[in-house]
Amino acid sequence: MAEKNDFPEAQQGQPQAFAPLPGPAAGSGTTDPPSWAVPPARKPMRSRRGITVAAALVLTAVLVAATAFITSAIVDNDGPAPAAQAQDDAANQPAPPAAPEGAAPEGDSPPNAVQPVAGAPGDLREGAVFVQSNDVVSNDVVAFARKADGTLREVGRYPTGGVGSGSFEDAGQGLVLGTADGEASPIQNIDQAELLFAANAGSGTISVFRVNPDGLELVSHVPSGGNRPVSLTVNNGLLYVLNSGEVDRRLFLGPDTLLENCSHGDLPSVTGFRITGAGFLTPIADSTRTLSGRGTSGCSQVSFTPDGKTLVVTERIASIPGQSKDKKGVITTFDVRFDGALGARRLIDPSGTGPFGFTFLKNGTMIVSEQNGALANPGGGGAASYQLNSDNSLEAINGTVDNGQTDTCWIVVTDDQKLAFAANAFTGGSITSYRIRDDGGLELLYPVASAPDGQDAANDLIQDGITDMALSRNTDFLYQLNSLDGSLWVFRVNADGLLSHVETHQVFDLEPFGMGGEAAPFGISVW
Questions:
Q1: Going from the N-terminus, what domains does the chain have, and what CATH number goes with each?
Q2: Which pTM value belongs to this model?
Q3: pLDDT tens-digit profile of 16-32?
């Protein structure tokens, strides 16, 4: 594979000036928020009018109680009151038939769609699923409590303090769950879920929530250091954000033309922050760096390697010197220095075309989905695995493994390191499963693992538009966000690599795709 190592390092740094925000430095040990993050306390106000109203309410309560006592005495002497009689009559009537559990509501919901059920919300620290709206008015994170059987109950919707782009973001890891030390989802590096990090693509900001048992608490909201943040990663007290630089918020440029993201406006770049244990972010000076430096990039995802020593970014449509003319895509790696800034950059020609989403095995092996032309190349999707060398170069283990599906984008790996699942967005939508060999190489298992037979997308319940996905921490369940229709799909992961549909939630009410709808929701994390 052709690769390019850029030197000297001084020429690589491309700092972007933005005002540092006051706050405790990483590792300070304090959990108190900085003064700018705490609204001034308001003293309770009391007035004569308030006291008068309170007295009137007390008097009213006394009168009501007295009336009830008199009425009760009359009822005891003369028989049941009309209301009591009505209750008795109702009790003697046969109960209406109960709706079957998980029944779909009336309307245009997808198959087996269920609505949030009233009642105890559950404990988000025990199990949860989070997705974000990317709405232009208010970017909201929707929190679901996850039960042991994989089913979900909506707990609440929480504004990030920023806004979304309102359009499809062709990127992974827009929502990351974990702590300041690492990620619990979508990439599973640690087994703690205390903080949730969200990219606000429309306002150019990053939000951090504390995950409480009964809901989310916004603790930090800071500029991302660039335009249109779309992907985040966390490790060893550092957060890096991928700013796509895209200024055009349209998805449809014409009747048959879609916008290629990261191709208008600023060059895509990454910027670093230090994180405190409480979730406060402080920008790292001179940490902003461009990727391949190509104006047409298709930047897709940023992630640390499990040890935190290397930062990796995929660019699905960029090209570099020495690459064959019929091939597109670059994988960019950076050394992560002790001070949190980035060192040497390396541009790597991948084994296939269109590297998009990626994840890691525990030993550092990198598993990458390949879009390979997307809609322009039906059936061209695939995936590949790489060994990461000490010099941050990548070595393909067994090359691209085709799956016969279209627009393969997001990919996850089970905790036992035996299965990988990849989402294919179009031509019916499907999820492919791969077997992971002992050497880290991939073997196609089921091209359509989401269908009962594992082969035919026509037997699959899911539709076009499946995008981000994540596994539960025990990897027994897979959760899939459909950005086109705003639905959330739940699947059980079977040991043979097939998926069994559990339920579907209609999370967002979106305009029809292509008729005003721009497939805005993106980002999912699961605990």
A1: 115-526 (2.130.10.10)
A2: 0.79
A3: 333 333 333 333 333 33
